[in-house]
Amino acid sequence: MSFRRFLLKRTLIAALLTLIAVSVIFATLRMLPADPFSGLVASGSLTPDEVDQIRAMYGLDEPIYVQYVKYIQNLFTFQFGISLTQQRPVGEIIIPALVNTMVLLLPALVATAIVSSLAGMYAGWNRGSWFEQSSIVVTTVFRATPIFVTGILFLIIFSYGLGWLPAFGMRSPLANPDGYLETYLSVDFLKHYLLPFAATVLFYSGDFLMLARNSVVERMGSEFLMLHRAKGLSEMEQLGRAGRNSLLPLVTYFALRTGMLFQGVITLEVVFAWPGIGRALVQAILNQDYPTVQAAVFIMALAVIIMNLTADVAYAKLDPTVEAGDV
């Protein structure tokens, strides 16, 4: 199978998976026992006639197949509509929350990918050393510990115990930044940023460390390293050659994990009250805010599927021994 056919096949699969994902969330929301306006009628805030008018305004009184067609058209043209509960465009809710999530998680993922991969390569090259054993134990403990537990421990120690760093939010209550630069490039933001950043780095460190370590261990007895050793290369130079040939699984995993970042880490965002996409999704689900939930899930699913496609393509391109049709 040629690479072009492989790419076309994977793209079609990605499009189909996206359609399935958004269809599932559409059906799930419509199967809920009540709609967002039932509570307003029960509390007396709205009359049944007023609720009928609102439902008509949002198109919820139309046949289900008509709602579905319009829903698909709007999603794939990025027209997310108006929030049912906040009465403003969904994009004004989702986009800032998504930016906040990416500002937190993407630097953390890049940092742990670089540091943990280098540490894993060194650990794999020095099998049986105290460094290998201790690094595996420490990173495995943090990976096995739910990230919200690590976050709570950090809050207890550094916020409530020592009082070094603030506990919640992305900025102080009195802060009123203007624009992205003032929001994300300030001392106040940095103080709020350090604890969730550290928790995220430690949580993901075990994956990259073990991938890098295992890849180097697999290549230690390979012929190309024996050749380099015969040429008189130093230990560090040999490690560099082994590490360079171990990048494929790391690049693939990084691409997959990057797609997952668009989901946010809901428990982490809740613990630190970080205004990210995961926390916004939870609030929208609790409020049965259909447009916001649909937009958030669509963005999350699309990001995961696109990055999975990127990982497949990268794997097929970077490893010449892999046939595209077998990826």
Automatic annotation (TrEMBL):
Domain ABC transmembrane type-1: 98-311
Keywords recorded for this protein, A-Z: Cell membrane, Membrane, Transmembrane, Transmembrane helix, Transport
Signal peptide as annotated in the record: none
GO cellular component annotations of the record: plasma membrane
One Pfam family linked to the record: BPD_transp_1
Membrane-spanning segments: 12-32, 93-124, 136-162, 193-212, 250-273, 293-311
Keyword match Metal-binding: no
Subcellular location: Cell membrane
Gene3D superfamilies for the chain: MetI-like
SUPFAM superfamilies reported in the protein's UniProt record: MetI-like (SSF161098)
Example of a GO biological process term: transmembrane transport
Primary location class: membrane
Protein topology in the membrane: Multi-pass membrane protein
Family recorded in the similarity comment: Belongs to the binding-protein-dependent transport system permease family.
Listed name of the protein: Peptide ABC transporter permease
